[in-house]
Amino acid sequence: MYKFLLLLYVTLSCGAESVKIITYNVLYGFNHGKNIQEGQAWLKAQQADFIALQEMKGFDANKFAQLAKTWGHEHSYFYKRPHGMPLAFSSRFPISEVEELHKGVKRGFLKLKCRGIDFIVLHMTSQRLSARRQELNYISPTISELLKKKGKVIVLGDFNSLSPRDMKHLSELDDLLEEMRNTPRKKPNLNDNNFDIGIMTAFEDLGLVELCHQQLQGQKDLQGSFPSTLLEKIPNKEIQEKYLRRIDFILSDAISAKNLSQAAIPKEGDLEKISDHYPIIIELNN
């Protein structure tokens, strides 16, 4: 009887566990390698189960594996993309079914499986909307196939794209829009001279759910994941408000989205010097 009750307790406890997931663009390897210690300490303090990092310049597979162990992750994968900066993923649990997907696109995608979840880690092109459209068209069939299997799917990273759910906030960013219209290298990111929301709309049309908006809508934290005050052009919070927008996201299948328990876009403290982006954190109940 005691053994039965113990087994029942363990089963119920495991079923009640949640998983914590972080995505973070860390600016050329934690601010060009200058703030690795702060980045490591912050990630360790989060006690996340899965961490996806973008712009891991200055690292290789071994160096990243050693770093991941300092925040308690014995399992990791480092993807040195043919074009664009490296992607990295670490986990408390074994990683399997790894694929580096990059045929015919400038910025490759990292696909892997971990604890029953299919992950796709991405960092889409920042310079041109046309390149992001090409990348979207490339990865969409893979995502659709995963969703058809009715399993758990997470797509996360730096999309360099704007959400249709942020239209009210975006309508207030007149300075940003004017800057993009008048800067030759930024103008190719616009759609008919206005902010583009088509990329994120298309991801949602595949059947994915954008998790932070689901949890945080109406809250000030939802306003943005980029830029932090690390950038020289963003010396204070007042200036930041004119440019702050969301370009980093965690998306999931619809069933997993129903199990969302927490979401955050933390700011302040060391996060203002680790990167020009802020991390995205979500928790899902199993």
From TrEMBL:
Domain Endonuclease/exonuclease/phosphatase: 23-277
Entries under InterPro entries matching the protein: Endo/exonu/phosph_ase_sf, Endo/exonuclease/phosphatase
Pfam assignment, any one: Exo_endo_phos
SUPFAM superfamilies assigned: DNase I-like
Entry superkingdom: Bacteria
Alphabetized GO MF terms: catalytic activity
Full protein name: Endonuclease/exonuclease/phosphatase domain-containing protein
Provenance organism: Lentisphaera araneosa HTCC2155
